[in-house]
Amino acid sequence: MSETLVRLEGAPELVLEKLTSLGFFKTKTEAIRAAILGLGKDYKMFNSVQELEDELAARKMALVHGEIKSGKRRVYSEEEVKKKYGFK
Fold first, then answer.
1. Helical spans, DSSP H, in the chain
2. pTM of the shown model
């Protein structure tokens, strides 16, 4: 996850204020996220929702794999989990 600071003035600021004050979005952050996703759709960044979900899953799997490889995350066997939580 990344953080980005956005400074707005003029028309974009007014539109964002209206989107939240009229209740279309609860927060400015939510409205900005929706706008980014809308741009991705308009510019056909992905051919389908499934393709977008696949990309997100692949990125998450790569992150988890890196954590496992570096020792930040551990994978337990079925037997280890059963023993740890008292399952038979």
1. 11-21, 28-42, 49-70, 78-85
2. 0.70
Question: Rounded to whole angstroms, how far apart are CA atoms 79 and 88?
Answer: 9
Region for residue 11 given its phi and psi (left: phi exceeds 0; alpha: psi -120 to 50; beta: otherwise): alpha
Query: What is the Cα–Cα distance from 86 to 80, expressed in whole angstroms?
Result: 10
Q: Is the dihedral of CA 28, 32, 37, 38 positive or negative?
A: positive
Looking up tokens 């400074």 gives 7
| Per-residue buried b or exposed e for 43-66, using 16+ beta carbons within 10 Å of the residue's own CB | eeeeeeeeeeeeeeeeeeeeeeee
The one-digit pLDDT tens for each residue of the chain (88 residues) are 789 999 999 999 999 999 999 999 999 999 999 999 999 999 999 999 999 999 999 999 999 999 999 999 999 999 999 999 999 7
